[in-house]
Amino acid sequence: MATDVVLETSMGNIVVELYNDHAPRTCKNFATLAQRGYYNNVVFHRIIPNFMVQTGDPTGTGRGGQSIYGEKFEDEISASLKHTGAGILSMANSGPNTNGSQFFITLAPTPWLDGKHTIFGRVKSGLRIVQRMGLVKTDKEDRPDEEVKILKARILEKDEEV
């Protein structure tokens, strides 16, 4: 049974489907952090048009956040999963085996990330919201001029509609 998580953002709702079979530890980390309220009121601190939107750092700096396993945990790279287009859910990192709580959603194909970032899901609904986020005006450090944030992240109940 696939796990769906809804990201209630300041721009609208995004539902992501987690790839539990391909990245079980990563999916458990993400779902548990969502359940604990870890992602609530966390900003998208990095937005790069035609590339990705990044969030998951409670400090909002891009340098913070930690996993349920401790500060960092190892990659779960699956050769069968690729960054083929918009809507891929993938872990942000600072090198091999440095996953924490930060993640990004792609806005376009990003094949240079294949084998370097753990793909652990995809956008199931709300891709237009993600694409609109990608158009938000940013400064020279790719920080949005206006705050875009996850208001609440939660596990979607089995028969729940968003």
UniProtKB/TrEMBL annotation:
GO terms for cellular component: catalytic step 2 spliceosome. One of its GO terms (molecular function) is peptidyl-prolyl cis-trans isomerase activity. SUPFAM superfamilies: Cyclophilin-like. It catalyses: [protein]-peptidylproline (omega=180) = [protein]-peptidylproline (omega=0). Transmembrane segments: none annotated. Its EC number is 5.2.1.8. Keywords: Isomerase, Rotamase. Residues 8-155 form the PPIase cyclophilin-type domain. It is an enzyme of class 5 (isomerase). GO terms for biological process: protein folding. Belongs to the cyclophilin-type PPIase family. PPIL1 subfamily. PPIases accelerate the folding of proteins. It catalyzes the cis-trans isomerization of proline imidic peptide bonds in oligopeptides. This is Peptidyl-prolyl cis-trans isomerase. It comes from Diplodia corticola. The lineage of its organism: Eukaryota, Fungi, Dikarya, Ascomycota, Pezizomycotina.
